[in-house]
Amino acid sequence: MPGLHAIEIKAFVPARDYELSRRFYADAGFEERSESDGIAYFALDDCSFLLQRFYQKVHADNFMMHLLVDDADAWHRRLVDVAARYRDHGVRVTAPADRPWRIRDFQLIDPSGVLWRIGHNIR
User: Could you tell me where the beta strands, DSSP code E, fall in the chain?
Assistant: First the structure.
């Protein structure tokens, strides 16, 4: 629309254990660019989100993020190793699969129960 420009949109991702989640996302490959008052700004390339020191089980268990990448299989290989280090904290990762909506993706559950779908477009 003329005169109206969006710059960025970010989700506030809940964290049951804020410090654990900060370590998890750094290990997963996101850069923590700032942190203040229980809000950590994480980014990777042009993608970002805000990790918040806030947790309600119902909210976290129904919260989903989608990360579109160039190679879901490469991301999966990386995150399998990360998930293994955090397995005792509920982190899980599924195998990549081709979906009917023309995305190859897998699921990652973070330490708070947040579901991430990480995938690439199938051409």
Answer: 12-14, 31-36, 39-44, 47-52, 64-68, 92-93, 97-98, 103-109, 115-121
